[in-house]
Amino acid sequence: MIEAVQAVAGLGGMALAASFGLGVAARKFYVPVDPKVDEIDDALPHANCGACGFPGCRPFATAVAKGDAETDGCPVGGAGTAMEVAKIMGMEVVEGSSDPLVAMVYCAGGTHNASDKMVYEGPHDCRTLALIGGGQKDCSFACIGLGTCTVECPFDAIHMNAFLLPEVDYTRCTGCRICAEVCPKNVIDMVPITQDVHIACSSHDKGKATKSVCLVGCIACNKCVKACPVDAIAINSDLAEIDYTKCDNCGECIQVCPTDIIVNYSHKRKQAAELAALAAA
């Protein structure tokens, strides 16, 4: 009996000493937390997608509070979140300074339009196939079509259509850039959601070469450049490109394009705007 009491007393003494040591250590090594971190963290959307370059919203908030990250570094939150974070940091806020960004697929070379140079059997991943001769398409700039972007999108905002081309759901897209970063062909980029007109091609081949492998590729004919009333289109390395800071969505370029590669996504933008309005109501 005495031995049992002594054992319990010994264990109790050890526990008391350990708790005292932990208390001393906690005080000695305590690192004060900037209250702004909590405020910034509360203002973030908490998608924890990593699009900001940090492993989650809390690490991003900590970096902003320390001055190691920009206040507008959260693409998911967009301009609204950037303004809120800037206010918390005591910085000047300019309302309406930028439009939300969404993903745009710059390729229309699906199975119905573009030819293949081989039959691929292997891991269902665009990045893997890109290492094998640049992909299965005859056009070396074309979307590979295995849907890696759809798998990696944390918001279920991209889906493959019947022709194995990714299509963006603008009611879900947050502009996080993850799809663009995983695309080995760089056919996805971010554009202002207010922009309707796009040239859905990434080929820098000469017009004749492009036409031989894709029915809808840009052939750099210059017709869109001449038709644009605001000088928003230019040919760069055999590919027509739109300057979105100038484009007014007039659609004149669409009318003259011989390969129908210039598209108007106004219906998708309106769909997203209607959904946003319903959510805000």
What does this protein look like?
Helix 2 packs across helix 3 and helix 2 runs antiparallel to helix 4. Strands 1-4 form a two-stranded antiparallel ribbon. Strands 2-3 form a two-stranded antiparallel sheet. The protein is of the alpha+beta class. The chain folds into 3 domains: 30 residues; 54 residues, Electron transport complex subunit B, putative Fe-S cluster (3-methyladenine DNA Glycosylase II, Chain A, domain 3); 180 residues, Alpha-Beta Plaits. It contains 11 helices and 8 strands. The mean pLDDT is 87.
Total number of beta strands = 8
Any guess at the CATH architecture of the largest domain? 2-Layer Sandwich
Let me know the average pLDDT: 87
Helix-strand pattern: HHHHEHHEEHEEHHEEHEH
Distance between the termini: 73 Å
- CA-based gyration radius: 27 Å
Give unreliable regions as ranges.
Answer: none
Structural class: alpha+beta
Count of spatially separate domains: 3
CATH T-level topology of the largest domain: Alpha-Beta Plaits
Summarize the structure.
By secondary structure, the protein is an alpha+beta fold.
Which descriptors would you attach to this protein?
3 domains; alpha+beta; 3-methyladenine DNA Glycosylase II, Chain A, domain 3; two-stranded antiparallel ribbon; Alpha-Beta Plaits; elongated
Task: Present the secondary structure layout.
Elements: H1 2-28, H2 35-43, H3 57-66, H4 78-88, E1 101-105, H5 126-130, H6 148-152, E2 158-160, E3 166-168, H7 178-182, E4 188-192, E5 197-199, H8 207-213, H9 223-227, E6 233-235, E7 240-242, H10 252-256, E8 262-264, H11 266-280
Antiparallel strand pairs: 1-4, 2-3, 5-8, 6-7
